[in-house]
């Protein structure tokens, strides 16, 4: 009986990766399957957010001091729940929770991975139906497997990531993840309720014509960033007219567009956010990992993003990432 291999589901894809590496334990495949399950559950709620009273503030504020939307809470609980009840994760760090959560049960302690995630990034866009996303990052533990995970397992530089990815809840729902072997995109097929391989071996175009930045903060940026933005707008550019400016205000959507079409995304430091706005551990490092594996570059404005040594779970960082040549053009103005 021939099995329809034309449409490979996420689980079939990760199983195939396992076949290619017989020494692998299958833990990463199971972890990715757990993340895919939580993403499908979140997707259902995101898709009907306008229909039921799940909008609006949950009346709480999260560790960031931001008003928490009910979907934030739901998404956080879904991802934490599947990972806690799975068999491949020793603990998690979440944008929604002050400290890391060590699962500390026999099965979880025997897991070799920990996971960090922003369960629903861009949640301010929920009420206006703009694409939002989940971002996740997977590390191998540095603490002894068989014992409870420790803080050090989470505060590792991005270069140590085993895998990283995002889910974009947009016109379609996609899960994109990277390992060192490559970046692959899976589109949710509602007819079978599975993520199916739709974007194999994604490469970030070496250059592009889209620059993505919040122009409202222009006069707060450094001189070098301002000069680069002016360069993007210059008419008589050697490679044609001015670039196109696109800024969705939802990191996953902006990063995903640039990953596919080429472009550069910038969230520089500004006066009231001297260390930037975006979070190193569960927003910038996973996106930087994906962009680099796909052939692009990512920095904090002065250093390769993946080499930054973290000091705290929720630390912020300036973030510049995208097509290699556009990043090099930026660096000619800023570094
Ligand atoms: P600003 C959404 O709140 C978010 O964290 C990212 O998804 C997005 O890229 C950024 O903030 C937008 O921030 O200050 O431009 O609205």
Spatial gap, N to C terminus: 59 Å
Task: Tell me how many strands there are.
Answer: 15
Write the CATH fold name of the largest domain: Fructose-1,6-Bisphosphatase, Chain A, domain 1
Label the structural class: alpha+beta
CATH class of the largest domain: Alpha Beta
- The average pLDDT is 92
Order of helices and strands: HHEEHEEHEEHEEEEEHEHEHEEH
Ligands present: 6-O-phosphono-alpha-D-fructofuranose
Q: Let me know the CATH homologous superfamily of the largest domain.
A: Fructose-1,6-Bisphosphatase, subunit A, domain 1
Biggest pleated sheet = 8 strands, mixed
Strand order of the largest sheet: 4-3-5-6-7-8-9-10
**Poorly predicted runs:** none
* Principal-axis shape: globular
What is the rounded Rg?
20 Å
Question: Percent helix among the residues?
Answer: 25-40%
Furnish the topology, listing elements before pairings.
Layout: H1 10-20, H2 27-47, E1 57-61, E2 67-69, H3 70-85, E3 91-94, E4 101-102, H4 106-109, E5 113-121, E6 132-140, H5 151-154, E7 161-169, E8 173-179, E9 182-189, E10 194-199, E11 210-212, H6 223-233, E12 244-245, H7 251-261, E13 264-267, H8 280-293, E14 297-299, E15 319-322, H9 324-334
Parallel strand pairs: 3-5, 11-12, 11-13
Antiparallel strand pairs: 1-2, 3-4, 5-6, 6-7, 7-8, 8-9, 9-10, 13-15, 14-15
């Amino acid at each position: 009986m021939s099995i329809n291999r034309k449409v490979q589901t996420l689980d079939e894809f990760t199983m195939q990766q396992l076949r290619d590496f017989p020494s692998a334990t299958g833990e990463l495949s199971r972890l990715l399957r757990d993340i895919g399950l939580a993403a499908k559950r979140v997707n259902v709620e995101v898709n009907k957010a306008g229909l039921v009273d799940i909008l609006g503030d949950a009346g709480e504020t999260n560790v960031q001091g931001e008003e928490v939307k009910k979907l934030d809470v739901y998404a956080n609980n879904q991802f934490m729940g599947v990972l806690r009840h799975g068999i491949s994760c020793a603990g998690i760090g979440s944008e929604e929770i002050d400290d890391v959560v060590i699962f500390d049960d026999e099965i979880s302690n025997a897991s070799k991975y920990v996971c960090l995630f922003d369960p629903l990034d861009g949640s301010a866009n929920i009420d206006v139906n703009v694409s939002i996303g989940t971002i996740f990052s997977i590390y191998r533990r540095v603490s002894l497997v068989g014992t409870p995970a420790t803080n050090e397992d989470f505060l590792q530089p991005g270069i140590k990531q085993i895998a990283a990815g995002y889910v974009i809840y947009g016109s379609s729902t996609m899960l994109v993840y990277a390992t060192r072997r490559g970046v692959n995109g899976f589109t949710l097929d509602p007819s079978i309720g599975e993520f199916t391989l739709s974007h194999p071996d994604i490469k970030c175009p070496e250059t592009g014509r889209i620059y993505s930045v919040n122009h409202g903060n222009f006069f707060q940026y450094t001189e070098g960033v301002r000069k680069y933005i002016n360069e993007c707008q210059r008419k008589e550019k050697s490679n044609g007219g001015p670039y196109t400016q696109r800024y969705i205000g939802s990191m996953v959507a902006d990063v995903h567009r640039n990953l596919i079409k080429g472009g550069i995304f910038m969230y520089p430091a500004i006066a009231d956010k001297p260390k930037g706005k975006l979070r190193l551990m569960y927003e910038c490092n996973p996106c930087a990992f994906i962009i680099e594996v796909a052939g692009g570059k990512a920095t904090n404005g002065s250093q390769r993003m993946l080499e930054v040594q973290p000091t705290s779970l929720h630390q912020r960082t300036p973030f510049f990432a995208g097509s290699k040549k556009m990043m090099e053009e930026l660096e000619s103005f800023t570094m």
